[in-house]
Amino acid sequence: MTYATFSSTLTFPITHPSTASTTQAEPDWQALLSQHPRQVAPAVWPKVRHGRSLRSIIEIDQSTVRPTQTPHNETVDVTPHHDALVQELVDDEQLAAQLEVYAQANDYRAFRAEVATMHWAHHAPATLVRMIKLALSHAWLTLAETLIEQGREFFPHDPTIGQIARILAPPSITVVPGTAPQGLAASRMWVRTHATAYRGQWVAVYNGQLLGVAPSLDALRATIGPLEQPASTIITHIL
Amino acid sequence: MARFAKLLTDNDFASGVTFYEDYFPGDEGDRQRLVIYVHVGATLTPCIVDTGAAWCVLNPSLAQPLLEAERADYLRSITYEIRGTRYEGALVRLDLAFQDEISGNLMVIDATVFVPELRHDEDWREPNFIGLKGCLERIRFAIDPAESAFYFGRA
User: Fold this and answer.
1) What pLDDT was estimated at residue A90?
2) A170 touches chain B (CB under 8 A)
3) Residues A176-186 pLDDT 10s
4) Which of A141, A176, A210, B77 is least surrounded, with the fewest CB atoms within 10 Å of its CB?
């Protein structure tokens, strides 16, 4: 008999949230496994939160899913549960595709409404990252922040979500001492007066004097060399 | 110059002042803007202040040295619409600095900016922008049109 690794990846004993009290009552395995997958999913969230999406659990264990055995050596058939769960994942994948359509249409309301129904425990972190990027790309910033928070909750060890959270974190500000810039007003005046003569070029201006002109920033730096007063030298691309 | 500097700094509203121009160098059309000079790494360069813009936007040539020096973390495959055109690029976390023209002190902000990714045959022909998210959202600022003064401080 082949025992399912599907069950061994879950945290035993499974306790449904409604029974997850201080009592140590044995779960009703058959009843639990016959539930709709969305109802079972909260029981596996702790596992998901420790770095594996439900999708990855299912995909890895799909070939050895039936029958399975509980820790109490009861053999149960999880096929209906598994198949239903796979269908859930397919449905959610379609939902993710639909979200992309809404984003393409710039339909914020539809996107926000659908994303609210997403059950992130059923998805790989990459799916959530995709949705965050869509929200960011449309400047739906509050929604993006909400998704990032959910990402940190469901996938706290995912490096990409961690990276996104760092990049989107509120900025910090420090004040450091410096020296007053020299001739900046004169340099601004030079740019204001002469810019149109250098369209498409990069220019460097210090103390009201043109230091150099070049078609690229790299070429400009090569032309002018190290700056004596970088904090007082305007460097700009003329549109 | 900067007649409100003492008032605003003594009362902890602002930590510095710089002076703005009303157009970005070479920008075509009759577009009056509020353009301040900001340090991107070691480069002092003009940026349009745009409180209606979600993100800051930088010319990729300005951000490239910071990326190469690994002084900037980034998230690629982001798109952003600038002046009616949607560009693909990255959100980059890097330091911008506003310099007080009186004392020289720098207010450094680790901002999140959009940097377009261009093909080799593409030129970038849009201005730099200082936007709300990841930058202005944490800055207290005020302008005095009488002197083209831009006062700034940590919110």
Assistant:
1) 65
2) yes
3) 999 999 999 99
4) A176
Distance (Å) from the C-alpha of residue A127 to the closest C-alpha of chain B?
14
- B73–A163 C-beta distance less than 8 A: yes
Other Cβ atoms closer than 10 A to A179: 13
| Domain residue limits, chain A | 1-171, 184-237
pLDDT-based confidence at residue A94 (cuts at 50, 70, 90): confident
Q: Rounded mean pLDDT of B46-52?
A: 96
Choose among B80, B105, B138: nearest Cβ to A173. Answer: B138
Question: How would DSSP label each residue in A40-102?
Answer: HHHHHHHHHHTT--HHHHHHHHGGG-SSEE-TTS-EE--HHHHHHHHHHHHHHHHHHHHHHHH
Cα separation, B59 vs B45, in Å, equals: 10
In A, residues 130-159, which contact B (CB 8 Å cutoff)?
133, 136-137, 139, 141
Report ipTM (2 d.p.). Answer: 0.93
Instruction: With respect to residue B6, please indicate whether it lies within any of the assigned structural domains.
Output: no
Q: Is the separation of the CB atoms in A140 and A132 below 8 Å?
A: no
pLDDT digits (tens, 9 = 90+) for B50-107: 999 999 999 999 998 888 888 889 999 999 999 999 999 999 999 999 999 999 999 9
Q: Say how many C-beta atoms besides its own lie within 10 A of residue A192's C-beta.
A: 14
Q: How far apart are CA B72 and CA B92, in angstroms?
A: 6
CB contact A219 to B (< 8 Å): no
Q: In angstroms, rounded to a whole number, what is the distance separating the alpha carbons of residues B31 and B50?
A: 13
As for how many domains chain B has, the answer is: 1
Nearest by CB: A178 against B28, B42, B106: B106
In Å, how far is B55's CA from the nearest CA of chain A? 8
> Domain with B130 in it: what CATH number?
2.40.70.10
Cα–Cα distance, B74 to B134 (Å, whole number): 13
